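tool_log.txt
---
The assistant was asked to compare two proteins side by side. It first ran the structure predictor on the initial sequence, then on the second. Raw inputs and outputs are pasted verbatim so the downstream comparison step can read them without reformatting.
(1)
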Amino acid sequence: MNATESEPAMQVPLLDLKPQYRPLAAQIQAAIARVCASQHFILGAEVKALESSVAAYSHCRYGIGVSSGTDALLLALMALGIGPGDAVITSPFTFFATAGTIARTGARPLFCDIDPLTFNLSPAAVVAFLAQQCERRGSDLIHRASGVRLRAIMPVHLYGQVADMTALMELARDNGLKVIEDAAQAIGAADARGKRAGSFGDVGCLSFFPTKNLGAFGDAGMCVTNNAALAERMEILRVHGGKPKYYHALIGGNFRLDELQAAVLNIKLTHLDAWSTGRQKNAAFYDAAFGRAQLADAVRTPHAVSGARHIYNQYVIRVPQRDALRDKLSAAGVSTEIYYPVPLHLQQCFAYLGGRAGDFTQSERAAADTLALPIYPELNDTQLQYVVDMIAAHLPGKGG
């Protein structure tokens, strides 16, 4: 077999941002030129406009532009006064920044398992954790094993679908806990009532990393909130805690969103709904194509909560022998990704928390059998069908 014959029939990248950029290139370059001409690069008119627009899009009153989604989480924790001696409940099946920012404040991440259908934090797991591992001491809710005080819950709206916030908000209210939403993958996602990610809790945290549905030309993020006092505190903390300038009542950080990123995002935001609709269309195509291929026993497609708005930052299937399938797809020209191969309770840096294999079985299973397929809106039906065909060809009992 020669080199030409061994080449894949098609290349389907996990993500290709070039087709998104091409029709917007002139408009984006003009916006960048305006910022360059103004020579106003920090917290100017572009940032203010983006803060207002993204807050409204997220059904919130205030937006605080920051330097990344990670810094949005960190800023939210700092603004709520969470630090040493405190603890935050969150999911072990998420990107590192979720628990990493908790640890950076000196607080302790406390993990609860996920719902196996949505991959989001399980309210039932939180209920069991509070009943079995925590107790009231005066006005404080204490984690018995570590002695730390529970201060907040940080649910993650993973892959673009809102967690069960009705149940989680009720748990938070009943136990006097703050709620920080990690909505890094979920801008515009909503529950069945139409309530959008970021608008449920005290603070919603967004990421504009280039791979997100709304992506910048580098790192960028935002906190959204409906609390005026909290918004002001975050605005102060993002500029080293100084107000007025050079007078510091608080110790903050340098978490500012710059004008160039905001200028790009202001243009892209106007197209976000169309891009999210494109992802939803592609997800529906996958669902139908997997059904036609009669792969229901071998492939579990994403579970979308009825009536809710899933924006499909990722389209994640569950399959047996995931790693072998991924290798075969790569050889066939189909790029995939594993989000996430190691749950946070098993990460080396969190060994001090005492986590062991078997502690969170649903998260560990998801880490072993989930695979993200290409889903970006510019994919065509031929590419999507090719992905399904290659999976069907390589699964056990399907030939190939």
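(2)
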Amino acid sequence: MKRLSATNVARNFSAVLDEVERDQEEIVLVRNQRQVARLVPEAPRQDALEVFGDLYRTIDDDTADSLSAAIGATRKSRRGRLSELRDPWAG
């Protein structure tokens, strides 16, 4: 964890953000010898398939099969016709 003065960060904000992104290190902003804020790198972005893959590896086979079947059933049930949709403005 790196400590920088709020003035220094304000003067070099773009460079500081680049450093947080590049080094993936938290930076603490200090004003008058007190910690006032933290710049924390964003967690790596994951799409739904990556999250599902991580979940799939942590559960047992029976639960994984049940979850997969439930998702498949939900996908099939959503395929309807436009005329079957409920009109939200209808009285």
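---
observation on (2): Strands lie at 2-5, 27-31, 34-39. The first strand starts at residue 2 and ends at 5.
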